[in-house]
Amino acid sequence: TPLSHIRNFSIVAHIDHGKSTLADRLIQSTNTVADRDMKEQMLDSMDIERERGITIKAQTVRINYTADNGEDYVLNLIDTPGHVDFAYEVSRSMRAVEGSLLVVDSTQGVEAQTLANVYHAIEADHEIVPVLNKIDLPAADCDRVAEQIEDVIGIDASGAIRVSAKTGVGIHETLEAIVQHLPAPKGDIDAPLKAMLVDSWYDSYLGVIVLVRIMNGKLKKGDRIRMMQNGSVHHVDRIGVFRPAMTEIDELGPGEIGFLTASIKQVRDTRVGDTITHEKKGCDKALPGFKPAQPVVFCGLFPVDAAEFEDLRDSIEKLALNDASFSFEMETSAALGFGFRCGFLGLLHLEVIRDRIEREYDIDLITTAPSVIYHIHMRDGTMQDLHNPADMPDLTLVDHVEEPRIKATILVPDDFLGDVLKLCQDRRGIQLDLTYAGARAMVVYDLPLNEVVFDFYDRLKSVTKGYASFDYQMLGYRTDALVKMQVLVNDEPVDALSTMVHRDRAEARGRAMVEKLKDLIPRHMFKIPIQAAIGGKVIARETLSAMRKDVTAKCYGGDATRKRKLLDKQKAGKKKMRQFGKVDIPQEAFISALKMD
Ligand code: GDP
Ligand code: MG
């Protein structure tokens, strides 16, 4: 295809504004997929993604479109993840395309992720076509939303296309706008091969699949290619495009997006953002690469049944093969035995991986409280990263502690503004800005990441009845008065319940935690003290009183089956418990104890 007849684009939107539905409609209306093969949300391929209605990995589809001018075009759509955890993936896929459709729900207007994502598009120098979606709904207010796009984002929305991805209205206009308003890619077919490694993932049949965008030159089946970052050479055994099913073709030219396979064993052997060229007569200057995504949230994953440790290792290694942003190392906990300390891009990423281990590998897990990475500056002048509060060095050796901070942008209707400000204040936030974006307040806060990772998003949704939207970016590290709080159950420290807290909040946090644990831990035959302590000093204490727990005592005499049933139940319940000294602590206690409400 000549360059002038290629258009590469992505769709940016806030979650639920209709990105996937619009993508489906574009695919369907161009007969890219036969109607009988069309299922909803073509691009959200993983089960969990479909279930949760989110896209995690960038997905690609090549669409053939005959425009009103009679010419045939190739349109390449890269669908990007819509969740803040994966913002990094969004910004990098944007570098592979020249334009974006900005989809805004015309009943809702601009939201926090609309802003975050459109800024990625602007940074990547995209031409942007605004699309007002869901015009079939009575609450649609296109004029107001178009005005808001101009006010808040500062792009011309007078020509915004009015669309119902549901009914198909405006889909033809959208396709025409892509052809007419988005620029064709540039590139030189005679220059040495220069291709951007946009993404890679593991496929159990084909091995590692590499998504590439060709900048210059031609990539053919059988070529010997070189990854410019580490110099490794591979033999290309397949080239193809997504329609959206994988379809092999013979070559890819400038401006085109497609995949290659080259008997690469591990996703880790490919570096996203790397430049691919030919082994011989390669290009001499690589594209500016991008930094790898860094995990920011850490937690421990332990098997409920210690016998499943090897299975857990196996499942974690398999998942990591396909996800370079997920990190892990072995961890031993006095309380929980053998497990892994794992790093994630955010809470959603954590949940997705945990779900997959539990469902696809059928392993019951204990997840410890998520934590961020602290910088511990020692008195001897050295600095160490702390991934696990349980490993906090002795306080007498520590000079000061730094924690990561974020810049959070929250859009919220006026009515709930007070609640949002209070929530941010409670989480040690510093207000940076408060402006109005149409009928909504836009609040910008500097917040400690550790106050956000756990349940901030849930709290925000609940205090605003779901009306607030949220996005964040990392700001860097700052010193604060942080200490390690320990929890002792029956006088024994439970390392998996250790957390870093701000000194001023420690007492309140400690009290809340022991009160919660008192409810979460079942009564035993003896009484159990539950304490929170900082450096040996107890700051809160509760006592769980004793009881008899012989459940069968309730069955008088005869009914043996009922007795057995009750005992079985007790045993099953016990499997979900962990013993600490003489005390059983239920699995959900480790997370619930840390919720702050
Ligand atoms: P995404 O999160 O941006 O990918 O959003 P989806 O495409 O999953 O859409 C979110 C919800 O809005 C789904 O329930 C869709 O069926 C619905 N939806 C999408 N487009 C339209 C539309 O044009 N009209 C109406 N009424 N509903 C729509
Ligand atoms: Mg979607």
TrEMBL record:
Coiled coil: none annotated. One of its GO terms (biological process) is positive regulation of translation. Residues 4-186 form the Tr-type G domain. CDD domains: EF4_II, EF4_III, LepA, lepA_C. SMART domains: EFG_C. Signal peptide: none annotated. It is a peripheral membrane protein. GTP binds at residues 16-21, 133-136. Belongs to the TRAFAC class translation factor GTPase superfamily. Classic translation factor GTPase family. LepA subfamily. It comes from the Bacteria. Its EC number is 3.6.5.n1. Keywords: Cell membrane, Elongation factor, GTP-binding, Hydrolase, Membrane, Nucleotide-binding, Protein biosynthesis. It is an enzyme of class 3 (hydrolase). One of its GO terms (molecular function) is translation elongation factor activity. Its main location: membrane. This is Elongation factor 4. The keyword Nucleotide-binding applies. Required for accurate and efficient protein synthesis under certain stress conditions. May act as a fidelity factor of the translation reaction, by catalyzing a one-codon backward translocation of tRNAs on improperly translocated ribosomes. Back-translocation proceeds from a post-translocation (POST) complex to a pre-translocation (PRE) complex, thus giving elongation factor G a second chance to translocate the tRNAs correctly. Binds to ribosomes in a GTP-dependent manner. GO terms for cellular component: plasma membrane. The keyword Protein biosynthesis applies. It is found in: Cell membrane. InterPro entries: EF-4, EFG_III/V, EFG_V-like, EFTu-like_2, G_TR_CS, LepA_C_sf, LepA_CTD, LepA_IV. It catalyses: GTP + H2O = GDP + phosphate + H(+). PROSITE patterns: G_TR_1 (PS00301), G_TR_2 (PS51722).
